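Hi,

I'm pasting everything inline rather than attaching a file, because the server keeps stripping attachments. The sequence lines come first, and each chain or strand is labelled.
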Amino acid sequence: MSTRIYLGLLTIFASLWFTNHAFAQTSLSADEIVSKANLAAYYAGKDGRSDARMKIVDEQGREQFRQFVIIRRDREEGGEQDILVVFSRPSDVRNTSFLVNKKPGSDDDRWLYLPGLDLVKRIAASDKRTSFVGSHYYYEDVSGRAPQADQHELVGQDEQYYQLKHTPVDASNVEFAYYTTAIDKTTFIPMLINYYGASDQLLRTVEVQKVETIQGYPTVLESKITDHLRNGYTLMQFAFTHYDIDIPASVFSERSLRNPPQEWLKRR
Amino acid sequence: MNKWGLVLVLLSTLSAVKAEQEWSEDWGDSWQDTKDTQLFQGFIEYARGQKIQPATGTNESLNELRARIEWQDTFKKVKVEFKADAYYDALLSKSEGGEVRELNALIPLGEQVELTLGRQILTWGTGDYLFINDLFPKDWQSFFIGRDDEYLKAPSDAVKLDIFSKHINFNLVYSPQFDSDRYIDGTRLSFYLPGSGILQPDGLNVQRPDDNEVSLRAYGKLNAIEWAVYGYRGFFNSPEGINTNSELFFPRLRVLGASLRTTIGAGVGHIELGSFASLDDTSGNNPNIPNSRTKLLLGYEQELVTNLTAGLQWQSEKIADVTAPTAALEPSQQKWQNLLTLRLRHQALQQKLTNNLFIFYSPTDRDHHLRLSSQYRYDDHWSFTLGLMWFEGKTTETFWAQFQENNNVYFRTRYNF
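And the predicted assembly:
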């Protein structure tokens, strides 16, 4: 069960799925499976970098773009992680950067740098289910939803997929009633995820459209999230992904927010 | 429009056209660097602001067309940054102009040391629109007439030395020539002049110091707590003193301070302290020079519900040696000055719409300043902003109340490229 995915946003956008739903070996308990899936999904390689971009399309067909580089480093296997995101497009967010210290089991520490004001702003960790930079992805899609936040249930399987259903433990702080996933039996990548409301109406759909193995880690290179309520969608792509590049811990600091570390952001 | 203004506008137009082409083609298989596809970034903006029935002063607060060019590149690890505006400002007697906002080189000196030379925007401290240890120049005029927040910060011509280490980092900023705030001087806005009431004078007689200023910060992070200590030696940022020639001047100032910032519960809290020593009037005897004072700021920000964030701040200022009212340009003089701020930030329509409410309220002076704005980001290029600035108070001489003739509405249309 070497479900390995790459880092950061990648993980991020694929992550919900891994963490919550890799019930591959039915001989294992649900908790064991989730724990293994979490490790495999979030902690592939000790660090890495990737280019990423999003195409955001609203209900009127208007398109917006976001392009950024993301670097990630694990502080400890299965524990805290540092993530730095530096935007290059569009021009009004160019050089804007995010620094996240992800702390499983606790609130993440997050900072935002606004270059026009030279301002390093600390962001409250609570706004998890709001749009990530105007896209249809949520911050929680980015930082990862804790496995303990949902109850997981294997509802079916065929040759290719495990079918799962996930119900939030605390329904008061999420907009969905439950969600379902289809997880690839070979790669353990969730290829389809559907969020439903209280009366079973479909709210959001995530589809993984392209997976490649990079340095031995199956990596999502393309996915699409559709917002069925607003009739909009966001396409997400990753490229120039590299793992295990030995990023020092000191790179994830206020210094890098103000002056992005080109040595680690550049393509390899 | 002067020559370089014209060049900027031309460049921005060309870049805009080029950018448009790149964007539409870009979502294929090409993953070009921004640098390769677009040499310049920036925007073109038209802004218009109107005062609401002023009894004194001008009616218009803002009427300008502005073109911004931004360029950045790295040469052998030296990062060069350039940002400049060309503008046509209908409210100025000399309408065309330009300003370089940033032109600096960041030079790494080994792994742990960086030097930034040139014109730069500098910010530190923890306050939201409240500054204690950040004594870098602010543009209050821009702030009150509704320009983008970015313009609250005016550039410094400085040398910045950064030293980084595992537990403690240092910034040392030296400006050979003191950079003052762009204070309210009557160009666009009226204010209270002691003995004269609310006026919009035709400029002020101000004596500028021919001297340097130095800012220092040591900072670090202990677990999730950000700490910093600060030092400053220079001048009051606005001409708050009156000299023997009845000119306004910038009295000498030394500030020592510290701050902490960390997450508290579901939000972020901060505390900042600053001790201001008025070096030209250490005893507080000279009524024409502001006294020494201590400022304390507490703040907390948290998301209330999805897409609605609230921030509260309380600032208390204790003015030393207060005996009698002073004649200095400080409108009110009480031993304690308190200030409360509230921010509500709301986002909707997939973050295309951002609404902001910010209120400064002084229970001491019983005056307030309200800032309301709505920004609609139509797409990656076009954005529209509508806003209201309101000043009100019980009298005419307190800090916010003195601007009561400047209540204004404004809008801005911006094209980003």
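Chain B has one domain: 3-416.

If the labels don't parse on your end, tell me and I'll reformat.
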